[in-house]
Amino acid sequence: MEESFHLSQESNKKLSITIYEDGFAHVHEQRSTEGYADESHITWKGLPERIDVESVFVAGLNVKEMSFNYDSLQKNTLLKRYVGQQVFLEDRQEKTTEPYELLACGHDLIVRHLKTGHLLINPDKEIMLPFKNGELSSHPTLSFHIRTKPAEMIDLNYLFDGLEWAMTYLIKLTDSKLELIAQASISNDTNYKFEDAEVKLIAGTVKKYDNWFTSLKVPTDDYLYDAASASMPVEPEQFHDRELYTVPHPISLQNHQKKQVDLFNINDIKYEKVYHCTPRSSLVKQQVRFENSWGNQLGIPLPKGVYKIYSEHNGSYEFLGEDDLEHKISEDRIEIDLGEASGLKAEFKELKSYKEGYHKLTDIEVTLKNSKSEAEEFVVTYPISRYFLRVKNESEKVDKQDRYELIFKVVVESYSKAKLEFTIVEDESIHLKHF
Asked: For 308-336, what is the mean pLDDT?
């Protein structure tokens, strides 16, 4: 038997993990070959169960061939190795052990007695598998058959499934400004632990083939929770059109653990509380809005995540609501929906539609109701089509307009209602040009 030099986790000199939002990670390990004595094989022990073997590449070895060995410790997996081979059945009452050939181990266990030729189906006896020392790999192992002496340090890179991260934003509101705390929640569901790892986080979706190991994900109902604060704000780096965050200190990830790491904390961000309504519903939504701009202490990429809003009240903070938003870039407006606003209602009506030459005109009426004890400003959004020309006869001036919508701002006094009226003008001659 050819001798093998074992590289265990104890020989680890560096462990770096880059975690992606899609539920997988890239690992770079560096291990020392101190003690190597001219063996023909290098065995790399201590790997995650859900490693993508086809992603492995190694530096510091002149490799002739690589083998991956792993025996999942499950009954059917072990039995399949012995289909067509000799096994033993032990009758503990009779205190006998007889040799059999294992024929099948699917829905039924079928064996043939090697002396009598009799077939047994699902025998009521203990089955013994003749494993030899070294044959059973209870943990994933890579074996490298090498041509020449290895380098003093060997670098191994691979992908594996089961590590993921997501951004959570905690927002604390005061009367006029807010504090934004960005936390990365890292979940380890790999049946493997990582000690003192350098961790990087990449925001954005990466195109990746849906390989076999993505289907092996274990339910993540119960986690051990831990929190780690960054000693300083983590500035994102641009990496191939994605944002890369480097956690400024090594962290350890236990199996089935979720760890939260503070990435940055920004104060004095100006915001506005908005009551927003559209024709899609009579309900008025409460929103918190702020500009992601340099002039507002921000102007940075904000990866997709959940925004949790708290507001100060009598010296403490109360939870207002949460919303999940997609990735935001610098100069984007952040609009966080907190749900239905109590005491406010909006009713949209299309009064009539008529033609003037090639123009189609539609009269719109919006009734805004405020049953609260103080005046409130409604932000009314009305969608427009690509045939839109202009708006006229508006009872309130248009506050903003773009290719997709008109925005009005209307103040409604307490315990009262107000009407917003306007006419949409569309060019129907565009329709005719297509014929």
From this structure: 89
